[in-house]
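Supplementary Data S3. Sequence and structure tokens for construct A.
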Amino acid sequence: MSKFKFQQAIKDVRSQREKVANEISMLLERESKMRSPVGETGNLRRNTNSEVEHNENQSDITVGTNNVEYAEVVHEGSVVRNITAQPYIRDSIEQNQGTMQQMIAKGMTPK
């Protein structure tokens, strides 16, 4: 295999990884929004999002809720405030492990 073909193969694999990571990010954002508790304003659901950061060797997916002060208390609960945890983000990740593994296997299969 020539050096050019090898470099192109590396680029292709990176592109596939980035595409799969973006798709997983969208899945987790949708699932987290669907599972988030909705109060009077819908603020928690509306502000739940995801982002992907790609670098040379990996892609990192972050799912969370921005600019909602009470998001952590809702997600983790509070003994002091007698609030039961509603881990909508964690549940979205845990309950979609199989789907994510399938997406990775399908997306990273050589074409």
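Construct B, processed identically:
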Amino acid sequence: MSHPPPFGLMAEFDEAETMTAAVRTARAAGWTRLEAYSPYPVPEAAEALGVSAAPVGYIAMAAAAAGAAISAGAAWYVSVHLYPVNVGGRPPNAWPVFLPTTYLVAILWACAAALIGMLALNGLPRLHHPAFFARGFHRASEDRFFLFLSAEDPLYDEDGAAHFLRGLAPLRVSEVRSE
């Protein structure tokens, strides 16, 4: 019976600061394919990993602009060309009338795009990931912090990676196999 190939190695820490220091050390050593897991946001670790939330803001702004343009254009086209109605002597293309719907549609499109963009950029929903089955990983949502080194990293050598992780003083180092 053959074992599945290694997916990587997981180091478990009991404090956010030690995990963050481990992420910084791994980055300084040249590791590029690594992930950190924690029960609450750790901005320092995210910064050390090079994770940025900026793309979600740009996605939301682009969607808001597109939604506002489509909404204003549709309202103008309907009011001026399809159903021009003279109400109180105002011209059919009175733009202030279009502002409330344009504003609301822009907000709706921005919110939807931010949600979809965030999920897509994070690779979610991820219903199955080999790291979920690492020894003790269930505590990542309670009180433990994890650093994962992927076998896809060019520096990955199972013995060398294990030695490197043990040098970071974790509680334990677990092998993660792809299933």
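The first strand starts at residue 6 and ends at 13. Residues 80 and 92 are 5 Å apart (CA to CA).
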